[in-house]
Amino acid sequence: MVRCNVVQSNSLSTCDQRMPDWIDIQNAEGLLPGQSTVVEIDERRIGIYNIEGSIYAIDNQCPHRGASLAAGAFDGALVTCPLHRWQFNLITGMAVEQPGTHLKKFDAKLENGRVFLDRETLDKQATCDGIHRHLIRYGTMGWVGVFGTIEQVDCQRGDPVIIQTNRGRELGETLMATDNGSMPSEQPIGELLGIATDDDISGFNIARDNVQVQLISECDEHIKRLGINVEIVDSELLFDQTTIVFYYVGEATEQLGQLSAEFGNANNVTAVFHPLIEPEGGGCGSGGCGCHSEE
């Protein structure tokens, strides 16, 4: 990583009619196609990528759990987070397999063999990104996150909604509607799909009550047979009815991966095992990442 001195230049932004405050990233000059580097500007680490002669700049922190994307693999237009293997398209900024999740990008250009960044997009996310943000509570554990949508969804505080997380399709509760002046401007962690109807909720509740107790009992039998030292204390069937999350106490081991595969195949579901108590120093559980025992 290098710390950059800055030289200013000006050009017209495509986002609005202001004149951008271009920063000359002097130490990044000569960046060849297929190469990347990390620079530090105003104590912020920025990943700089050259894709076939075009320059792309992103916040070096993965929007999932904050890992350094520069430490991951860079291949073509894709960068892979080294922590949980999330992949992002550097051109679009979107996550490959996590709908609604995307990188924080900054305006950049290559001019006369030198890389320039727009300082204003470093200080504040562009207001013209077209994303409507909503603060949603979801999951048995009551996680709260910002969910985005391109089309306006007219939901109010307390409205039940259907959201797409990286665990699957879930039900949530609106805590704050879009266009509120206090809405967090961070990148959404998932997509708001729409308002849940009474029929959606009642149909899901019937399905959940019918299968959830049975699946817990079957999971306990698998645990005993495999001799895994964990105890299931709660479970959560997602709205898509294809994913069930088991919350457990005990030590996470590789056997949980075997349990997840066996149980999922036997019941035609995706089985996710999530620690009830977050491991010290973090882990992949916060915010309902839905990780299995290994990533």
Helix/strand layout:
Elements: E1 2-3, E2 8-9, E3 22-25, E4 36-41, E5 44-51, E6 54-59, E7 74-75, E8 78-80, E9 87-89, E10 105-106, E11 108-111, E12 114-118, H1 119-123, E13 132-138, E14 143-149, E15 160-164, E16 169-176, E17 190-195, H2 198-226, E18 230-237, E19 243-250, H3 255-267, E20 270-275
Parallel strand pairs: 1-4, 14-17, 19-20
Antiparallel strand pairs: 2-3, 3-12, 4-5, 5-6, 6-10, 7-8, 8-9, 11-12, 13-14, 13-16, 15-16, 15-17, 18-19
Helix pairs in contact: 2-3
Describe the structure in your own words.
- Strands 1-4-5-6-10 form a 5-stranded mixed beta sheet, with no helix packed on it. It has a 5-stranded mixed β-barrel with strand order 13-14-17-15-16.
- Helix 2 packs across helix 3 (255-267).
- The longest helix has 29 residues, at 198-226.
- Strand 8 (78-80) and strand 9 form a beta hairpin.
- Helix content is 16%, strand content 35%.
- It starts with a strand and ends in a 20-residue tail after the last strand.
- The protein has 3 domains: 2-123, 3-layer Sandwich (Rieske Iron-sulfur Protein); 132-196, no CATH class; 200-275, 2-Layer Sandwich (GMP Synthetase, Chain A, domain 3).
- Mean pLDDT is 79; it is low at 2-16 and 280-295.
- It has 3 helices and 20 strands.
- The protein has 295 residues and is of the alpha+beta class.
